[in-house]
Amino acid sequence: MSDQGTLEITDEWIAEIYDEIVETIKTGSPAQKKALVKRLIVQVEIDGKVAYPKYRVPTANPPGVFDGEPAPLSDVAATRIAESVAALRRFVAEHGSLPTAQS
Question: What is the span of the domain harbouring residue 28?
Answer without folding.
Answer: 11-71
